Amino acid sequence: MVHDAYGQEHPIADGVMRIVSLVPSITELLCELGLGPQLVGCTEYCVHPRSTIGKITKVGGTKNVDMAAVRKLAPSHVIINIDENKREVFDDLKRFAPHVIVTHPNAPQDNVDLYNLLGTIFNREKETIRLIHEFERVMKDGQAVRECLPRQRVLYLIWRKPWMTVSTDTYISRTLNLVNLETQPRVSTERYPTLDAEDLAELPMDLCLLSTEPFPFQNKHVTEIKSLLKTECPIKFIDGEMVSWYGSRAITGLSYLISFAQQMQEETA
Q1: Residues of the chain with CATH 3.40.50.1980
Q2: Closest of 257, 247, 253, 254 to residue 28, by C-alpha
Q3: From CA 244, how far away is CA 213, in angstroms rounded?
Q4: Is the Cβ–Cβ distance between 121 and 148 less than 8 Å?
Q5: Is 78 helix (H, G, I), strand (E, B) or coil?
Q6: How many other β-carbons are positioned within 10 Å of the β-carbon of residue 13?
Q7: CATH number of the domain at 137-268, out of 3.40.50.1980, 3.20.20.70, 3.30.450.30, 3.30.70.1230?
Q8: Closest C-alpha among 188, 192, 187, 167 to residue 177
Q9: CA torsion, ordered 142, 146, 148, 151, to nearest 10 deg
């Protein structure tokens, strides 16, 4: 038995597995664990791996799940996430799905627990060990690089109208902090704070990052943001998948982030 993020016990799966994933990064992780053939449903936002995903039934979005479509797939396991999916989704799934696995990675280090959780439930020990070794290697690389990087205050924007960023109590913020990027604001009552023009003008920052998702920021938005910021600072685009996706993507994501931070340092040297 293993426990998920909601404290529920889950036995090791036996017999036929029919898995539905309502979390894009976990869909990718399941395929990395060799569970692509057992994956019968996923969301419209599950786009990796492209070679596999086109064959899997889509069941709506992460927030607007088509529950009738999920039920029709007769899943043995449904995997959800506290940030990605609404509580009502969990409640509805519990009415018919034998196993609803709740996940909530909240820091890069939580990926090891995630690998172990799914690897244990679905009996993928060999694949799990490989992922843990790869992840720990890139984490060591990040820790070594961090010592050589300056601390920078960063505004990481994920949405427009309203402007929205991330609090320090999020996976994204803690991932950025691995390369000494400290997200602003430092104190917030919301996990994903909204900002007005006055907030943007007053935030202390050395760098502004525009994530490529969930809002598709473009070059035209750089001029708009520059007009709102009181302090002049670099404004750069960053691959949102590489910073916000956990699971197997965390391994390539951390490598990307290390290179990103090193390149910024070279540009300002």
Answers
A1: 2-125, 137-268
A2: 247
A3: 9
A4: no
A5: strand
A6: 18
A7: 3.40.50.1980
A8: 167
A9: 150
**Residue 103: alpha-carbon gap to chain centroid:** 11
pLDDT 10s per residue in the chain (269 long)? 899 999 999 999 998 999 999 999 999 999 999 999 999 999 999 999 999 999 999 999 999 999 999 999 999 999 999 999 999 999 999 999 999 999 999 999 999 999 999 999 999 999 999 999 999 999 999 999 999 999 999 999 999 999 999 999 999 999 999 999 999 999 999 999 999 999 999 899 999 999 999 999 999 999 999 999 988 899 999 999 999 999 999 999 999 999 999 998 888 76
Residues 6+ apart with CB under 8 A from 242: 249, 252, 253, 256, 257
Q: Report which of 49, 47, 61, 94 is spatially closest to residue 75, judged by C-alpha positions.
A: 94
Please give the biggest Cα pair distance in the chain.
61
SS3 content of the chain, % helix, strand, coil (to 5): 40, 20, 40
CB neighbour list of residue 194: distance below 8 Å, 6 or more residues apart: 162, 163, 164
Strand pairing category for 235-238 and 163-164: unpaired
For residue 48 the two structure tokens come to 């990796």
Q: How far is CA 132 from CA 32, 48, 111, 152, 254, in A?
A: 12, 20, 8, 29, 14
Which ranges of 166-247 does DSSP label H, i.e. alpha helix? 171-176, 197-202, 219-228, 240-244
| Region 2-125: CATH code | 3.40.50.1980
Nearest to 23 by CA among 102, 120, 135: 102
